[in-house]
Structure of 4-nitrophenylphosphatase:
Amino acid sequence: MRCCPRSCQQRDDDARGRGRTQTSRRGSLPASTSSRPVRLTDHLLSLFSIDPLRSTTDLTTGIDIVACPSRADMPKELDEHEDLAGFLAQYDSFLFDCDGVIWVGSEPIAGSVDAIRYLLKLGKRVKFITNNATASRKTYVKRLHDIGLHEILHTDVCSSGTASVDHLASLLPRLDPAKRDIFLICQAALEEELREAGITNFRGGSDPKWNEPMPLQDFSSIKPDPRIGIVLLSFDMHFNYRKICQAYDHLAKNAHCQLVLTNDDVEVVVGQDVACPGEGLMAATLRPATKNPVTVCGKPNKTLWDSINREGKMDSSRTLMIGDSLATDIQFAKNAGLKSLLVFSGATSRDALRSSDIRPDFVADSLAIIARLGRP
């Protein structure tokens, strides 16, 4: 079921008004009406029959995000009157989205660093998860260290990119060795994660030749290759027609070839005023080429939880997901069977929550509510 235009537009306005830097939103495209022109993204989604609120994956099914007005069953508010120590004692592991929860733009959100330090002092397991595959885990660790969280390790960060790498690591051994090479559409960070996992049988990606424009009406550079068994698509600022053509040819000609997406976010919001197509719109150009299931590895799909907890050390009943987005963070928690805390320091306002049927278990203004417990 699609969300109603009014609630979607309200969510769009809330996200833009808070000025998040390069954050992604799923399902934020309003339906056209007679008084409003049809947006290009609406047209493309309709053309390729893509529901921005539903992820297509062979690993997670039945995602049905509805955003129609409903004010019943509002989640529990965490404030200074709550037994916060007792609340935290219910959980051993805490998963944090980054943008809108830990920081906005280049600045940490007040109380976020102290809250995480307090949880670490209590001996809690802390993980940072993001749909952004354009930055490596090393980059995220450095940024977390720069804001004072020096205890954070490389293994404490998981992105839609690392989840995709984990998925490929489990998939590749099951494929025909002669048909399991990878064609990449991505930026350099994802290549770094692939190499770190020992996966090197790929081409495309950040190779400069793929950024060159094709001569007009000349398709001679597009070469069939039966060895390609996977097209892995991530957000790419150099996405172009050459890459589309080559990836499309692999998917259309190689019956065994699978399309894997790091995430399916429809839009990327940069600053306060600029909304740009996200990976979901890039993927729309390739989906018609394949009859195979499309795997989406980032939030809100359970594939990401499988990657985070691949060693089985976290009990889902004692894990809390903390995020600022209903459609990605909170829906991810629901799909993974986790409890969730929505903070209003990022993309979602209280009004947007009231008009949505996606319900977190708890809400709070920000992580500052947890930071207070650690103060003398």
Notes: Residues 1-39, 49-71 have pLDDT under 50 and may be disordered. Residues 235 and 279 are 5 Å apart (CA to CA). The chain has two domains: 76-131+301-374, 162-296.
